[in-house]
Amino acid sequence: MVIDTHAHYDDKRFEEDLDRIMCDMKAQGMIAVNASIDRKSWEDTIRLIETYEPLYGMLGIYPEYVADYGDQDLDRIRELAAHERIVAIGEIGLDYHYENHPDKELQMEWFRKQISLAKELHLPINVHSRDAAEDTLNVIRSENAAECGGIIHCFSSSPEIALEYVKLGFYLGIGGVVTFSNAKKLKEVVKAIPIENIVLETDCPYLAPMPHRGERNSSLYLPLVIEEIAGLKDMTVDEVEQITEKNAREVYRL
User: Fold this and answer.
1) 230: containing domain
2) Are 104 and 96 in contact (CB under 8 A)?
3) Number of domains the chain is built from
4) pTM of the predicted model, to two decimals?
């Protein structure tokens, strides 16, 4: 079974044909975990997981939005996380790429708060980290996030940092970017870490793999990612699919 550990099926680009995609995923034995980023997407995620059999969900506050949130929002996440198909807190983390994002200290404060919530709820975390590799790793260490475990979503750092996450028991989310010809660093990461620490993801509708780069992505394209990983790891496609399924089930307790 193919498990997409990070998707955004509440995105408006799926409005017209989501039923068809979910039907195709079910027919192919696929599962996806819908990530949320704000109040609206929490509610949308609950609606989706109650509507479509292939979907599970996660709840979190994306670093871009933390300035507009308070402790009452953490209470709402606690409430919604009681749903049996909510399997993680995410996507949460740090994003220093854009100047108009909240300042670093506020982002780190909310990252810590949500890690604490995940530990309280006995749920893993799904971590967004962009241009913030050192701070992300430091917060995860200082907050003992290994206690809840989780996935570093859309991993884009060095093999050295990847191996530090492996030591902490985290999984790395690998998606369509690994199929790009210029993704040399990520290909080295995949070669360097054990397959037992890799999970599949799309971040759809973003980051479609080759030869669909620039198109709307979906979980249905994950076999292309599996093929690339198999080639990099000198494994069969079936081996990669089976092991990454096992990994996803372990981290999300499916």
Assistant:
1) 2-252
2) yes
3) 1
4) 0.97
